[in-house]
Queue: 4 jobs
Job 1
Amino acid sequence: MKRYTLETSGNGLTDITEEIKDAVAASGVTAGLVTVMVPHTTAAVTVYSFPDPLGLDDMNQEIGRLIPTRVDFLHQHDTPQDAAGHIKSALIGINATFIIDNRELVLGHSQKIYFFEFDGPRSRQFYVQVAGSA
Amino acid sequence: MDQPTHAGRETAAEPSAMRRQVYSLPSLIRDEIWEIEARTRKAISTPQIFSLRTLILAGSGDSYMAARAAADAFVEFSGILPSVQTSLQAGRYTAAQLGPQPPDTPMTICVSSSGEAARLIEAAHAFNHQGGLTIALTANPAGRLAQATALTIPLHLPPFDPAPGVRSYILSLLALQMIAIRFGEVRGRITMDQAMSLRRELAAGADMVERIIEEADTACRNLAQAWLDCPAFEFLAGGPNVGTAAFGAAKILEAVGRHASAVDVEEWNHLNYFIGSPRETATLILFDANSAAQSRTREVFEYLNALGRPWATQGSERPANSPFHIPVRHTLRETFSPVAHTAPLALYAAYFNEMTGERYGRGSAGPWHHSRAGNAVRNSAIIPFFDETAEEARL
């Protein structure tokens, strides 16, 4: 398993596709699965269309509209952004699995893998586990 | 008066209660800091923090000074400019002048370790009457202040031998700083990571204060010896340490009963500079290399020399021309630096007390008997300001 760290500059999506590809290449696995896991409760991992970067802003803004940062969450241990972030994280999900074929990560032509921050800026990490046959 | 020398009277073989209070500060901070964090985190709800429009920090004596020392933390971390007020000002003037306000406005944090200060209880009632949100920050959650306020943030102050307050002051100061961090975090002014980093910075103050006490102990004793016969004392500082300086002056008043005052270093140039007996006015200057006031403070050194004042510095770095220095080696940001400067000031006053043999607060005896058991401040008549009958009684 590989562990990666990142510093988010705020809320939004950070491209981590290259890190996943590197983990796959380093594993020597020719056919199998790779799982990406985010060990946080106010962040997530997702796949999104990358050609138009404004689409990433759309996603970030839309999730904010769906689960706005409100002051009346019952969970007040931390902050309103944190409380909203927990819900966003649960809905988007903290892990994703992809296929490895012929030593390569399988992705659609417009797909990239993104770390999705809901409570940034923060110091973050994610894990990558590759499994399969060499 | 002469500049400090190492000659002077001996102190008691056993440290006094006041000095032991100082020595206990590191363990007190260590034991209580995260409990304070937990209590300040839970006491005030997110909607209340967001509805905050006007913040008043009110108190008397040490509590007022703690509020003064913590006020900059609210500005820096939460962007809120608090009004630091004495209990009298808050209750009998501001509350009346504000008139009816929006819900929960103003938010008034009423600071009183004893929780029994009559004027502050009166202020809490007055702000309640105006629709404000009142919060008691007190080590006496069963006291009259806590009963008068809408919310209470209880502080755990383990019992100690009676002496001028040092432990209570540091707890109030830390709690206010923790509240400032919390307000900034919840209102999104700082991130949760930044907030936790600031809290850890405060928590690390325990080890820092321990080292500062060790390094400053002899210097505090020597300064007390050198200025033993001085009739008047001034403490100069800038920014948050104006509150710390006021604490230093308060400890001189309580410990030895001599005239003592605290002055913003700029205001000193306008006012106290002109004191007619400079050679009898011992002047201690809080001076940190990272202080926004440091260049102005350096200018004052020349004036002090010209006046012939006995003077000394206390801080992170000894200025080249300082005749005597109490080392307070610390890496705290200026906003938190009152935590570092508190212990040496109390230590100095404690040594002074031991050398003079004075009784704390003159023993509340003779002409000072009104202060017995806090009577003069606890049992003052509480006037329901907005009661018409009382209004007539006041006239």
Note: The domain at 207-358 of chain B is CATH 3.40.50.10490 (Rossmann fold).
Job 2
Amino acid sequence: MPDTLERMVLTGPVRMSDSGHTRRRILTATGAIMAGATLAGCGLLDDEPDPVPAPDPLEPLLAEALSLAGAFDAAILAQAALAERLTPLAEDHRAHAAELAKVIGKPLPSGGAAGPSAAAPPGSAAETLTALRTAEQAAQKTAVAACVAAPAERAALLGSIAACRAIHVLALR
Amino acid sequence: MNEQLAGALAAEEAAIYAYGLIGVHLTRVSEVSGARDSEQEHRRRRDYLVDRLDELKTGAPPAPAGYRLPFEVTNRASALKLAVHVEDGVAQAWRAVLPVTEKNARNDALSAMTDSAVRATAWRRFAGITPLTMAFPGRPS
């Protein structure tokens, strides 16, 4: 850190003279930018569309939770015999989606989960369980990566989601 | 961070102690080997934590001489219940480490937490406890 500071102090004036700008011109330019900011702040430039906020890094995890819930719903429809076993797992994913939406600060998409994209998988119960297990394994990796990359205040929630997906892999065995 | 690491260490020590009692009451091969593997795993995590605390120059607090069990362990059912209880406790302790660590250290904490949550699930299944899963493992109930 001291090293960075020192470099900034040393190179600052050098850059100024390199660019050929006088201090006054730089100050004037800054003033113009400030004035622009003030005008925008006053609402005079409201015709400008609001800048699109960057998507929250947890958006993909939320989408994945909803898609997993949908995959379980579809599996339950296709394999009624598995309903008792799979329903609590679908509910876990919905609980994750609700919590992630809260943290991101946006409402859950209406309808909760189970889009038409989650087509009922054909095949035997064993094949259905295998497919769900594979999806959980991939989703666990996503959640681990999200947890490790997250700021401190999100780490515990994302850790629990990752651990839950790992538990599901066992529960589907 | 020291406080959270010390909390995880205390949970691991308690787990090592508990598995000594649990193993006595199990007879099925899969359960006995499960208990043995779990104890080994907790010893490995304990050593990791002792090393981490040494690196931080705080040293590991001494393990208590004994533990008060949450309930009496007299048979297979109560032994399995204690295993679930212990693993849930370890998962909770490691979860508290996540916000105070970064990168590799956080990844290690998450692995430890996940392993305990998975073991708790395996013991629940042996014990026939439902629900088998929970949405937020490690979150204090």
Note: Chain B is about 65% helix and 0% strand.
Job 3
Amino acid sequence: MIRLEKRPQPSKVWGTLTPVLAVIATMIAGGILFWMLGKDPLEAIRTIFWDPLFHETFGPYSRPQLLVKAGPLILIAIGLSLGFRAGIWNIGAEGQYIMGAICGAAVGLAFYPSESILIFPAMVLAGAIGGWAWAMIPGVLKVKFGTNEILVSLMLVYVAENILASVSQGLLKNPDGMGFPGSRNFRDFPAAHNTDLIAGTGMHWGVAAAFIAVILAYILLTRHMLGFQVRLTGEAPRAAKFAGVNPTRLILFCLGTSGALAGLAGLFEVSGPSGQVSIDFNAGYGFTAIIVAFLGRLHPIGILLAGLLMALTYIGGELAQLMLGLPGAAIQMFQGMLMFFLLAMDMLSHYRVRWKTPAAAQEGAN
Amino acid sequence: MDLGQINPLLLLASLMVAATPILLAAIGEAVVEKSGVLNLGVEGMMITGAVVGFAFGVNTGAPSIGFVAAAFAGAALSMLFGVLVLYLKSNQVATGLGLTLFGLGLSALIGKPYEGIKAPTMAKWEIPLLSDIPVLGPIMFRHDPMVYVSLIIVALTWYVLTRTRAGLILRGVGENHNAAHALGYKVIRVRLMAIAFGGACAGMGGAYISLVRVPQWVEGMTAGAGWIALAIVVFASWRPWRVLLGAYLFGGISVLQLNLQAAGVPIPVEILAMSPYLITILVLVVISLRGNHGAPGSLGREFHATH
């Protein structure tokens, strides 16, 4: 008979090991899935995880994409992880991402065709504020009225999507666009364009911001009082209460930070890789970032690695679509599976698994 | 703009159709939450039910088989959640989110070959005598069978929860799992059954969207209906008849919104389209002003029997 015994403290060894095991388990289960779809499982796994980086023809094109895709994922996931640690569930990052992009882009477009060097910093600021303000809605409602932040933040994603549809056909529509929906392209607006910092690497300002966010989050969590309070609230809510942690401040801080970072990610995307505000410029990064945060065990360094891995599955998925005709949705499912395996294996770090003979179990019960 | 174009009778009749998917999902989730488990995967189970129900409906030509298949698919997916949460003690919020993300991917994968096909039509039941009542007849008694099935499920849920021993045990497990365990009730087994029921209901609700409401398969077509169902459970203070009220109110808003769009009211389409979500937020705020009365005591808490 199998018994679970709660560990007094989560095991550190299993904590680092489980994400790796989950990735391996997902590869195996994914291989079976691809096999059922009539593809060679080994070839599919290699196309997703190896070819984007090391294939002679695709590698040079895909490698920069890795940073382009990982940047927003890491930036959003870092913000989310702070709240998740403290039991504050912002799952509407997708909406904050959209609002950040709209606000930032609007500021830039308002000054078209100025060449001032202040435009891009102003856009960055507006992007952060847009995301922050959108996340403050569930934040303020939670602290003022105790409204559930999970549902409110998610509902606001649909509201943001409608706003996006509206502005890309109206307010921000390209006046020289011959009636096509979508804003001016930032590629034709150098002062506001988020180009590669080092040409051909995919390293744009958003990626730089993601790395900075990782470092700052690490310092916050290990060296700063506020970070300590975040950790304490998550691990021992009662102790946090006695220690005088101000829950209102914590909620607003966690939601606001995650919103601002998601808004930044949106702004960097819209002014760089995506290039324009259009109805479907958002690619679901806000939701995938939830998986990234958990895969990285809510730890900044873990999130950095998880973001890179998840970016790899995006690029590899596109490659597999192209080369093997694998449906694009298979990758989405693959990512969902990863989350499941991770949550299932998390048990190993919180519990000790004991095998007992029925007789011994009986004895234990008495 | 022509508001005279909106026929109040048709509006009320289509309200019941618009509300049924959310009603089914919400009544299932109400039972799950009554047993003390918070399953945020409703959206994922609904969309999976939508695609599986549609596939079976199209292939067999019988929507009823589609609904049965959707119920099984929803229940099967919910068992994945159940095992993770109840046996492997994973975090309920995170696992529910995972279920939604997984379900969205799974449904997109299954649904690819079914895009652009029309669903087989489901015959309407004209209930003899009742459907001939003026005004009330066309509104209430000329619908497809699933509308009545959903109402029967609500009534049965109310009966079982409040009038039977099984319902008492389920509520006991949800209020205080340690006490229920000490009394010798099988907390995990009760919860597993509740989760399966919730999954089956969500699956049928999803299938109602793809087989009756739209009726087509479109990727991501549930568009937040599962999340709205979760909000309605809170709105209803976990009571079956109030779930019905909430779902029908919501159905009314979404139908009215579509009618206003069609009538060409000078309000931007996007504002009308976002109104159901804004109203949900508003309702949540109003409900939380009143305080969270009726939330089961053990809702969302991890249960670990030490002996």
Note: Chain A touches chain B through 48 residues (CB under 8 Å).
Job 4
Amino acid sequence: MPNPLSKERKSYLKKQKYNKIFITVAQFLILTILIGLWELFARLNIIDSFLMSSPSQISKTIISLFKSGELGKHIFTTLYETLLGFFIATALGTIIALMLWWSDFLRKVLEPYIVVLNSLPKIALGPIIIVWFGAGTKSIVFMAVLITIIVTIITMLNGFLSTDSGKILLMRSLGASKVQILLKLVLPSSLETFISSLKINVGMAWIGSIMGEYLVSKQGIGYLIVYGGQVFRLDLVMASTVILCALASLMYLGVSLLEKLLIKK
Amino acid sequence: MDDILKFKNVSLIYQTSVGETEALKNLSFTVKKSEFISIIGPSGCGKTTVLSLIAGLIKQSSGEIIYKGKNLSETDKNIGYMLQRDELFPWRNIERNVTLPLEIKKIKDKSARERAISLVEKYGLGEFLKHRPSSLSGGMRQRASLIRTLSFNPDLLLLDEPFSALDSQTRLKVSDDVFKIIRSENKTAILVTHDISEAISMSDRIIVLTKRPAQVFKEHTLLFDASLTPISRRERPEFSKLFDVIWKELCNA
């Protein structure tokens, strides 16, 4: 019964479509204007291009980094640390959240510890981590895990605990065991929480790895930023930040794709 | 007719950190096979507690519950529990929702599966087998929920205000449907409700409970013609008379 669309419907759909295009155009326009003004002001010497750098300088720096083969090395290092931290923290955090869901006793006992760990600025543990794990990749990954895992535990545990009590009652009335309740009800109903936890974790893992690289590193994007700052090469700092933006967006996009794949309507 | 369920002086005292609450006190009643009984009482009187006891979710403090001639805790409790809301899992389609009890109870029998699916078709949801619950109306969802309850062929059905989440139009229609399905499958059913007309329109017998701690206040055996559906019962003169009687009892209970 495909009815021909009414006039009102058509104009409504048209309006919707234009609205969408308008938003996208506006988004690009803001970026273009900002970059353009930045470049213009730098060339006209209205702003100090030594302190503020400029888009053309930034792109030159990125190209020269790429040509010297340095870029790949730094990107790979940071990406490796971030992804490793992300996966370890997500997996471990989810498992710990599951254990806390399983045992009321454990949850009640550990609650104050989790609260304290959550409010503690993890960077304060930096020196301890370096002493324990050495000035290398291990420390950086550990920092990423530490920052990501607490949030994962809290988010996932809340997700597990908010499972519909009526559905739990239904499962219990059918004589379901705790494992069955977990596998057939709690886990599938927490899928959306898991996805949103992944999205948070992308950001968290990046904070962790960059912060780790600020503390100890010989290579990586975080290292480039710190190094650039120390030798007053602001173009290097800005170029690294741009690369960081691109990498983080790509990883977020990856999670969004996963979401579309897992949650089919 | 033989008794399928018997409550003998059942008492239940809830323990909480604030204190103890006496929910049931010396509650005794019997349910016969293929009978449809309603339990009605003032709100908060412990009606749902009675169903939780039968479903084996909680244990009585004293007294005996006899199910099919044996102590309830010693039987395999082939009892279906239908809740206030449909509680269909949104990530499963209707087929996988109604066969959930078979999965939980590890009934791998192919014929049990086919039986469950034939129920879906018999009661008008066949075309929705592969659909998610979100594409069904409230009334259809509650019907699917009943079919899920029936899927493992329980001997006894517990209905805990299964229509309270529906709007009043749908409610009449669904209670009619549910009544017909339960009759045609020849099941024993215990309905808990606070809705007097619902109780009168559906049951063979109504048990009126007192307020907490709940005891049996009155029992009414209903003598409607067996061919009458719940909706047509509502048009009978006996209906409003009985309504008045039970309404007054509930005020005094």
Note: The mean pLDDT of chain A is 92.
